[in-house]
Design a protein that fits this description.
The protein has 214 residues and is mostly helical. It is built from six helices and no strands. The N terminus and C terminus are likely disordered.
Length: 214
């Protein structure tokens, strides 16, 4: 029998939280974690400093009804995700946040000093170290790498979940668990592929991005 009903968005394609090692994928080693954090910071910096039309096109490529919801765990660090959701929301409202407005775009009483420091680093990148200013031309490649890392963490999450299944479930149910995880992987891969296709389109013409998707 073919399941033709609508499929829910996958919940485990990448980081779901930082409190359950079986529900989120993590970079393999310390160097990879550092590279992931650097990439996320460079992407956010480039997004804030890019022309509004380019920033909007990048947000539209990542977020949408057939791609990711804005609250998807696209970023490894939660603070990075918080910044991105605010930027994406501003795009949906037609009022993109510029570098000069970034700090005032948040109620800092709701965040710690580390978050305020993050905003200042993004708004005032050091050309030498540790977060140089990426150029507008770098933004599509940074977005593609961000999507790639999201997907790779998702594979790690699925492998961890199947490891748990093998340890805890009956042999007679393993095929159903494997099938469910395979469907999940396929859904995440399809989202990833649609993001890359959108990023390959000419930038600067973001088109319509429904507010409900943001």
């Amino acid at each position: 029998m073919t399941d033709t009903g609508p499929q829910p968005r996958p919940e485990l394609e990448t980081v779901a939280g930082h409190d359950d090692l079986d529900t989120f994928g993590v970079p393999v080693d310390v160097d990879e974690i550092d590279a992931t954090i650097t990439l996320e910071r460079e992407f956010l910096t480039a997004l804030v400093w890019a022309p509004p039309s380019t920033a909007a096109a990048i947000v539209h490529a990542l977020i949408g009804p057939d791609r990711l919801p804005v609250d998807a765990p696209l970023f490894y660090l939660p603070d990075h995700g918080t910044v991105f959701r605010r930027l994406a929301g501003a795009v949906a409202e037609g009022t993109p946040v510029s570098a000069t407005d970034l700090v005032t775009a948040f109620d800092l009483t709701e965040h710690d000093d580390r978050f305020a420091h993050l905003l200042m680093e993004i708004a005032s990148p050091n050309p030498l170290h540790p977060w140089p200013l990426p150029t507008e031309a770098d933004l599509p490649a940074l977005a593609r790498s961000l999507a790639d890392q999201w997907l790779r963490r998702g594979y790690q999450a699925l492998l961890a979940r199947m490891h748990t299944v093998l340890r805890e479930e009956r042999t007679s149910t393993l095929d159903q668990h494997w099938l469910a995880l395979s469907r999940h992987q396929r859904a995440a891969q399809d989202v990833h592929d649609r993001i890359l296709t959108a990023l390959d389109a000419p930038l600067g013409h973001g088109g319509d991005c429904p507010t409900s998707a943001i």
